């Protein structure tokens, strides 16, 4: 009986024997998509015979990054204004990029026409900065730069979220996005009043992310000289010294170097506004009233009175190693920037 059974088994086809003896070993086909293993069924016979049954891939879309000076005017500004918000909020990333470029065109060629829409437009630009698709993110950075250039101080109340995202994008690893964000930040420090911008930058100097602190420090160092001598005194030189001193011991060298630049500028302004009277023949009354200062009030004493002992020591170490002519050059630069405001 047993021999007959074995004989019958030997006469079965190989595939039939496998299915009868070990049905539990049958597994679905495993494919690899985007580097991850996924269960993927075999194509049906109909799909194999009929190529039209298989979905064809969409052609790749290339986004062109147009510099501001090469942008053309829109054909119908009113029509674009009516559709730009919907385009920015679209789920199609290509439509979002088109809408962002239209925002750039409107900012350059129809500044006044879009002014009343900034409260709706800027939050959507911020949304695009958060987009995981790099093309959308870079186009949003370029849009931010054009908005700063066109609207200057008109966007101060809407600046916080935009500033945060630009600092974040400028500190990421994707180089072409990072460079676009840095250009936008440079445009911001150039066109937005430093008096309005510095209070928004100072909290960023304490961000937990060291890269964000470094980018904020660079913006801070570019904004302080734009105040000029009088602007620094009006803003409060003690506030600026304290903010810069906090960056001297930061983790990244970019932050420390930016802090040194600011402190040298502030030292020059302080010493120009508070000259030390060394010549006994010179009378304090011969100086302007605001420059009459007791002989003992030096830069060193000022730092020691406004900073902790360790911070004051660090600031004095930085500001005392640079030759006087270099510091005077910074004063001249600060004065010239003040005259331009």
Automatic annotation (TrEMBL):
Residues 1-55 are annotated as: Disordered. Signal peptide: none annotated. Residues 42-53 have a biased composition (Low complexity). It holds the Pfam family CLASP_N. Residues 67-294 form the TOG domain. GO terms for molecular function: microtubule binding. Gene3D superfamilies: Leucine-rich Repeat Variant. GO terms for cellular component: cytoplasmic microtubule. Coiled coil: none annotated. One of its GO terms (biological process) is microtubule cytoskeleton organization. InterPro entries: ARM-like (IPR011989), ARM-type_fold (IPR016024), CLASP_N_dom (IPR024395), TOG (IPR034085). This is TOG domain-containing protein.
């Amino acid at each position: 009986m047993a021999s007959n059974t074995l004989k019958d088994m030997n006469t079965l086809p190989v595939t039939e024997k496998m299915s009868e003896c070990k049905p539990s070993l049958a597994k679905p086909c495993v494919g690899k998509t985007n580097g991850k293993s996924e269960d993927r069924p075999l194509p049906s016979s109909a799909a194999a015979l009929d190529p039209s049954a298989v979905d064809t891939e969409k052609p790749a879309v290339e986004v062109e990054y147009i510099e501001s000076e090469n942008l053309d005017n829109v054909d119908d500004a009113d029509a674009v204004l009516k559709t730009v918000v919907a385009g920015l909020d679209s789920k199609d990333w290509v439509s979002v990029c088109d809408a962002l470029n239209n925002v750039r065109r409107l900012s350059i060629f129809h500044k006044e026409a879009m002014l009343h829409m900034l409260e709706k437009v800027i939050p959507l630009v911020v949304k695009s900065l958060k987009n995981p698709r790099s093309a959308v993110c870079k186009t949003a950075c370029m849009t931010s730069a054009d908005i700063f250039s066109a609207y200057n101080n008109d966007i101060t109340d809407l600046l916080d979220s935009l500033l945060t995202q630009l600092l974040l994008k400028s500190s990421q690893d994707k180089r072409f996005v990072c460079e676009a964000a840095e250009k936008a930040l440079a445009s911001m420090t150039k066109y937005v009043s430093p008096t309005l911008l510095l209070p928004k930058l100072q909290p960023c100097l304490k961000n937990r992310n060291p890269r964000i602190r470094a980018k904020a420090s660079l913006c801070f160092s570019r904004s302080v000289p734009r105040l000029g001598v009088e602007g620094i005194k009006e803003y409060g030189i003690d506030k600026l010294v304290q903010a810069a001193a906090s960056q001297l011991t930061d983790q990244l060298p970019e932050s420390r170097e930016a802090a040194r630049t600011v402190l040298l500028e502030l030292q020059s302004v302080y010493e120009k506004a508070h000259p030390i009277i060394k010549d006994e023949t010179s009378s304090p009354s011969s100086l302007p009233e605001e420059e009459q200062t007791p002989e003992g009030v030096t830069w060193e004493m000022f730092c020691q009175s406004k900073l902790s002992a360790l911070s004051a020591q660090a600031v004095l170490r930085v500001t005392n190693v640079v030759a006087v002519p270099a510091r005077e050059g910074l004063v001249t630069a600060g004065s010239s920037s003040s005259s331009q405001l």
